[in-house]
DNA sequence: GGCCATTGACGAATCGATTTGGCAGTCCCT
DNA sequence: AGGGACTGCCAAATCGATTCGTCAATGGCC
């Protein structure tokens, strides 16, 4: 095993004091003459002493590190959303001088050790994720970014206001004259998908419109699979004049499927996506999408968690909703009414 | 401070054995009857015992976490290179069941504690980064991804074969008839920039060609600034017929500057970039660039570091060079000769 | 029966810090 | 001179695990 090169004991010996005095001298606590304190500080400097964070962590119970758990985090840096989210979290943690630990996250293998962190952020909780469940049961403070699916233990939640943004899109689409809306999003594994689907169906019921829905397997990023799902939906519901999609990867599949079906996006059929990404501004035509401000969301998660960790503050009862903004583009314009059909 | 809910002592009490026996029972070491071992394991399960990784870390000297240090990591997730690099590192660490800790990295403020990690990867070491220096001095095993600049303490290095790729580009450009090559890259802060610049100048000397160079401040991502630098270079050396740029952000500035100067990329002037990114395939015309395989590089760093940490293996003497591939595109075609000028 | 080897379990030390309680010694006041 | 208040410093306990050496009990063998 790797031993510490210089320990507090060495410093104490060099300064001719006891370890306890040395500790107090360096942390600015305790009672002693200025001369003693200086002697210790100088000895520490001369020896290039750096306290062992693990030992400090054991004694004080805080390691100044926040854990970030995300299913398959490895693949997911590809997603703009997650990348921005992490950037936000990192902003928040670094501001408070915490490290950020990306937790090893093979969902199949539960993990033995409790990670050496003060608290955990679970990004995008998924129902069948064993490790997330472990973390929730571990007694560590946890904050979820996005709503956990049903059946997960409760924990404080910070989420974007998906429902509000979705309603804006649907209302606008109704103003454009849409009669046959459809929604495609992930299965029940994702709390976020369930929420969107429920909101979509509620809105359809309110308007007295038939709502068609399709399911994409959560986490599947392949264009081909999404194309298939959308193709089937269009075959089932050929009169569909609005497609609301949960996330950016599905849009690519939808565009292909729509083209194959001879439908023209922005006139024959309107299209919107519940999560934005730079590529959506570059599709032809550009796709209306919801900017979830993932960076702000990540930052908010970090800040809340650090507050919980440091001050044992009361966690918020209800989920905290952060505003989400619709970026209106040609696939479903925000302005003047488009002639449909 | 937050206390552990269930400790080894609790398990031992429940199983009617001493803590030492409990520890040995759970780790499969020591001598005891099968009955005793089972009793301990069952007690641990019933109490939902999870060992405290911090205490384990203190005792064993290993916390199963690798640190990743990168200057301003917060902003840098924007860079495709870094993102891919991190993904590779994450691949490598997760495969060995290590966590990855993104070290808080404000370069101005040196840090007191030695981080709770078994080793550190320094991505893209920069000369005036205090924290990188601290890490190198800390006694922790360190691996650098990319060459550290002169003046940094030695450490094992894994890097892409920049020089080889640059030579391929220059040779190809020479075959196209280039007479006035120019290079723009970061200042001496970056080991990578220094290496590229030196290789460029060596090649020019070998060929008996005059080589012009420009400097971009390292870490500056603004298009306007790069445009200015390239504009000045073009004013100074109007006959320039090849621009080799260190990294992707500079390309945007170069394209603007070249257009303003009325130069046509791919015919009047050839253009290449020493680091690839998806956007470079989408410029007009597409830009020839070097694919540094950042993901493979990150993975290699993680694997080497874990080997060093676990087996106290000998670090490689010389920098390990990973192959880099030139992606030939219209801005400097790899195939038939283009008529220059 | 006497001796040695082996087994099963445990006590105590250890990793490197923090923190509490207390012990001398000094100073001041009456 | 005696008592109280205060100062400067330290010993020891603690955080939660691991590990080494020890020891009593058992078994086998001559």
TrEMBL record, chains A, B:
<dbReference type="InterPro" id="IPR028082">
    <property type="entry name" value="Peripla_BP_I"/>
</dbReference>
<keyword id="KW-0805">Transcription regulation</keyword>
<dbReference type="Pfam" id="PF00356">
    <property type="entry name" value="LacI"/>
</dbReference>
<dbReference type="InterPro" id="IPR046335">
    <property type="entry name" value="LacI/GalR-like_sensor"/>
</dbReference>
<dbReference type="InterPro" id="IPR010982">
    <property type="entry name" value="Lambda_DNA-bd_dom_sf"/>
</dbReference>
<feature type="domain" description="HTH lacI-type">
    <location>
        <begin position="5"/>
        <end position="75"/>
    </location>
</feature>
<keyword id="KW-0238">DNA-binding</keyword>
<keyword id="KW-0804">Transcription</keyword>
<dbReference type="GO" id="GO:0000976">
    <property type="term" value="F:transcription cis-regulatory region binding"/>
</dbReference>
<dbReference type="GO" id="GO:0003700">
    <property type="term" value="F:DNA-binding transcription factor activity"/>
</dbReference>
<dbReference type="InterPro" id="IPR000843">
    <property type="entry name" value="HTH_LacI"/>
</dbReference>
<dbReference type="Pfam" id="PF13377">
    <property type="entry name" value="Peripla_BP_3"/>
</dbReference>
<protein>
    <submittedName>
        <fullName>LacI family transcriptional regulator</fullName>
    </submittedName>
</protein>
């Amino acid at each position: 095993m790797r031993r510490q090169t210089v320990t507090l004991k060495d410093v104490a010996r060099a300064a001719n004091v006891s370890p306890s005095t040395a500790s107090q001298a360096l942390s600015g606590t305790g009672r002693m003459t200025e001369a003693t304190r200086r002697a210790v500080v100088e000895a520490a400097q001369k020896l290039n002493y750096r306290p062992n964070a693990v030992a400090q962590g054991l004694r004080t119970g805080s390691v100044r590190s926040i854990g970030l758990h995300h299913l398959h985090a490895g693949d997911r840096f590809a997603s703009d959303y997650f990348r921005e989210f992490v950037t936000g979290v990192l902003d928040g943690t670094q501001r408070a001088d915490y490290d950020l630990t990306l937790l090893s996250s093979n969902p199949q293998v539960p993990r033995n050790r409790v990670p050496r962190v003060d608290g955990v952020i679970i990004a995008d909780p998924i129902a069948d994720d064993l490790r997330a469940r472990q973390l929730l049961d571990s007694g560590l403070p946890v904050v979820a970014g996005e709503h956990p699916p049903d059946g997960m233990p409760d924990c404080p939640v910070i989420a974007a206001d998906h429902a509000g943004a979705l309603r804006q899109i649907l209302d606008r689409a109704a103003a454009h004259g849409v009669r046959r809306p459809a929604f495609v999003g992930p299965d029940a594994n994702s709390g976020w998908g369930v929420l969107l689907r429920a909101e979509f169906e509620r809105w359809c019921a309110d308007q007295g419109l038939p709502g068609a829905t399709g399911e994409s397997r959560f986490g599947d990023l392949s264009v081909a699979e999404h194309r298939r799902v959308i193709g089937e939906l269009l075959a089932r519901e050929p009169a569909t004049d609005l497609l609301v999609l949960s996330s950016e990867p599905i849009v690519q599949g939808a565009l292909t499927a729509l083209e194959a079906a001879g439908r023209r996006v922005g006139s024959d059929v309107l299209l919107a996506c519940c999560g934005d990404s730079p590529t959506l501004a570059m599709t032809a035509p550009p796709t209306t999408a919801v900017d979830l401000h993932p960076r702000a969301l990540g930052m908010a998660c970090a800040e809340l968690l650090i507050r919980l960790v440091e001050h044992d503050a009361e966690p918020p009862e209800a989920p905290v909703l952060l505003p989400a903004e619709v970026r209106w583009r040609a696939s479903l314009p925000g302005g003047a009414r488009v002639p449909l059909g």
